[in-house]
Amino acid sequence: MTVYFIGAGPGDPDLITVRGRDLIARCPVCLYAGSLVPAAVVACAPEGSRVLDTAGMSLDEIVAELEAAHAAGLDVARVHSGDPSIYGATAEQFEALRERDIPFEIVPGVPAFAAAAARLGVELTVPEVAQTIILSRLSGRASRMPETETLEIIAASRGTLVLHLAARQLPRIVEELTPLYGPDCPAALVARATWPNEAIARGTLGTIVAEAAPLGVERTALVIVGHALNGVSSTRSALYDDGYDRHLKPRE
């Protein structure tokens, strides 16, 4: 058997990968993080399969389910939101399976920041404006940030900054980033991108707190800050320039 850690994407059931959906459709056991993964994503699980929402389960309880499936020789679809490589508490599950010699495979998914950029209609990297995307978060109840990863330190490059689960700390974000990016720097809050109850606020560091307040968003949101949100600069990428020598398609 194999435990498949499947990235469900940002929420819209159509944004899971074909491989991810096919695995859910054939695995006799399915564990999904119901607080962030809609039930519609796992609705294709086989009839009679064991489908469990792990939102209220501890790590030990989850591992026990995986061990039971392993003993029975049953493949497991372990479905996480976004992509399993980021903010999914997957590393501790990987380690538990390695300790028990239970085979697993990781199936990537569409990460939340990519979905948020799509809903905003922007590219997060713009030539000579921002070529770095910083994915981070702030200290919270689940885990503290390392001392070397304070907001001031990670934002020093002034790249495009994407902060996960940060809606409640928006005033603090504005206060700490304004000296680095300036009050006119574009900023956005995107909550539950691609869900039916999606909410988006756009503004600048000087206005985003007021823009976001009517939404009443406290959880499951990204805060994105950076000049790339303004769109193209006066300098465009050479990639599609007529004079650019493409190795795969050289000029005639």
Please tell me about this protein's structure.
With 252 residues, the protein is of the alpha/beta class. It has helices at residues 18-26, 59-72, 91-99, 112-120, 151-154, 170-181, 208-212, and strands at residues 3-7, 29-32, 50-53, 76-80, 104-107, 133-137, 160-164, 186-191, 199-204, 221-225. Strands 3-2-4-1-5 form a five-stranded parallel sheet, with helices on both faces. The chain has a five-stranded mixed sheet with strand order 6-7-10-8-9. Strand 6, helix 5 (151-154) and strand 7 form a beta-alpha-beta unit. Helix 2 packs across helix 3. The radius of gyration is 21 Å and the shape is elongated.
Number of strands: 10
Helix content: 10-25%
Number of helices: 7
Q: Specify the overall morphology.
A: elongated
Order of helices and strands: EHEEHEHEHEHEHEEHE
In spatial order, strands of the major sheet run: 3-2-4-1-5
| Largest sheet, strands/sense/barrel | 5 strands, parallel
Unreliable residue stretches:
none
Share in β-strands: 15-25%
Alpha carbon gyration radius: 21 Å
Distance between the termini: 53 Å
**Average pLDDT taken over every residue:** 91
The helix-and-strand class reads alpha/beta
Oligomer: single chain
